Amino acid sequence: MPVAPYWQPYLATKLIVNNLPVTVPSIPRRLACWMYEGLLMFGVVFIAGYLFGTLSQTRNALDNRNALQAFVFVVFGIYFVWFWAKGQTLAMKTWDIRIVDTQGRLITQKRALVRYILSWLWFLPPLTVSWLFNISGKEGAVLSLGWIAIWAVLARFHPQKQFWHDALAGTRLVSWVAPESPKRAARMAAQAEAAAKSKA
Questions:
Q1: Which of 7-11, 26-30, 100-104 has the lowest mean pLDDT?
Q2: Which among 22, 174, 167 has a CA at the least distance from the CA of 88?
Q3: Are 15 and 174 in contact (CB under 8 A)?
Q4: Fewest C-beta in 10 Å: which of 5, 13, 114, 172?
Q5: Residue 117 dihedral angles phi and psi, to the nearest 5°
Q6: Closest by CA position to 22, among listed 177, 163, 133, 186
Q7: Beta bridge partners of 15
Q8: 124-153 pLDDT tens trace
Q9: Distance (Å, rounded) from C-alpha 57 to C-alpha 51?
């Protein structure tokens, strides 16, 4: 699979998929994509909250809090399972990252669902500790950030530098640049030819 030259400083480990070399994005690059994904999810949360409030006739944000959290969890699941089964989320397209299985193929919705559940390993341990020991919100945030850093660093101990929830789910993140559309390539070539003729 081709990799854009400008990504060379960010590349990490190489894999062989379907007898073709592909490159694993570096951990900082994957974390940058992860944070960008988080920003985009604010819009999903807003829409999910609005739908839940409309459907449940909830007027106070504190009412039906557990039900709202469960609803957002399901909405997140639908979002990620849908896009991962297509190969990329919107953030992954921006960072030229693609999700595949161990054979380099698009993952199934079932595998995407397994990955979604396992991806909560980024958050569940600190959230569980905060709940068990009644830790304050500020201390819980520090604990969560610390755990996220630890979970990211643990990828360095994977043979292919993959996050461990990907290893458990049988998925891989690889560098991938979408091939240019033939129609767009033909159009650009025609425009270039026309420009050359006009200068002649």
A1: 7-11
A2: 174
A3: yes
A4: 5
A5: -65, -45
A6: 177
A7: 22
A8: 999 899 989 888 888 988 999 999 999 999
A9: 10
Dist. CA 48–CA 24, nearest whole Å: 33
What whole-number distance in Å separates Cα of residue 102 and Cα of residue 105?
8
147-171: pLDDT as tens digits: 999 999 999 999 989 999 999 999 9
Residues 102, 35: Cα–Cα separation, whole Å: 25
Q: Return the pLDDT at 182.
A: 67
* This prediction's pTM: 0.76
* Contact by Cβ (8 Å): 195, 189: no
Tell me the HSE value of 182 on the side-chain side, using a 13 A CA sphere.
Answer: 0
Read off the pLDDT of each residue in 82-106 and give the average, rounded to a whole number: 93
